[in-house]
Structures are given as C-alpha cells and as structure tokens.
Automatic annotation (TrEMBL):
Gene3D superfamilies in alphabetical order: Winged helix-like DNA-binding domain superfamily/Winged helix DNA-binding domain
Signal sequence annotation: none
Source species of the chain: Actinomycetospora flava
InterPro entries attached to this UniProt entry: HTH_MarR-typ, MarR/SlyA-like, Tscrpt_reg_MarR-type_CS, WH-like_DNA-bd_sf, WH_DNA-bd_sf
Protein name according to UniProt: MarR family winged helix-turn-helix transcriptional regulator
Domain HTH marR-type: 1-138
Keywords for the protein's UniProt record, in alphabetical order: DNA-binding, Transcription, Transcription regulation
Matching PANTHER family: HTH-TYPE TRANSCRIPTIONAL REPRESSOR YETL, TRANSCRIPTIONAL REGULATOR, MARR FAMILY
Keyword DNA-binding among record annotations: yes
Amino acid sequence: MSDAREDAQRYEELFQAVYLLFHRRDGKRSELPNASRAVLTHLERTGPLTVTEAARHLDRAQSVVSEIVDGLERRGLLERERDPADRRRTLVWLTDDGLACLRRDRDVLGIDALADALARLDPADRAGLLTTTAALVAAVDTRDREDRP
C-alpha cells in the first residue's frame, strides 16, 4: 500500500499531464489589467458598492478607483445604479458581461478540449472524477491556504 506522500507525488505528475494537455491555448489569458481585475473581483465578492467604498476596501485613492470604474463602465463590464435604500448614493455593480469576463479570466483549462475528453469517459468514471476532485479540494484546511505564499 502506498503512503500519502507517494500518492501526492503521483497526483502531481498526473496534474502536470492534465495541465499540459488541457491548458488554454487561445492566446493571452487575461484581457484585464491587474487593477481592473481587482475591482471586478472585489465587487463580485462584496456586491454593489460606491466608488468611495470600493476605494477604501482596495486601499486605493478614490480618484484611481473612479478612473478604473469609468474605464470598466465604458467597456460594458460595470454599471452605475442608484442605491434603492438611499437614492442620493450611486452604486457600482457588475454587468453580465463583467461576470463573463471574470469567468473567462479565471479559466485555466480549455473547456472545449476538456469536455471532449470527459465525454469519452464512462459516466460513472466522470462522476467519480468530479466527486474525488471535489473531495480533495474540500480536504484542504483553510489554515493551510492562509499559510501559503
């Protein structure tokens, strides 16, 4: 019987093979500058905010965040809306295109190539792969993630 370290080394080898076979090859991975990605990601996690609130949360000057928001709004990734609780406040929120842009930005694997390969698996094997991978992710203690660089 193998120990966990040997299994980890074998999994790492398999993971490299999966990455090499299925990583995205459709050009530049991100269409977002880091600052724009930070604003979109923060809004996705927190919900609608004012530019002032976003600047405070991101520890950036309000003028800088306002400029980023203006650019993202021009691209159709964000929109401004009145706060229903206080009509004097204007909130910034993600559009459907903004959410889709974030999703594409996070994609590491080529979904079409991966789907083609998964379609060739027996449905029980495919379900087992997904269940086991989810169990592996769930097995990570959140403290382990906080300690990583």
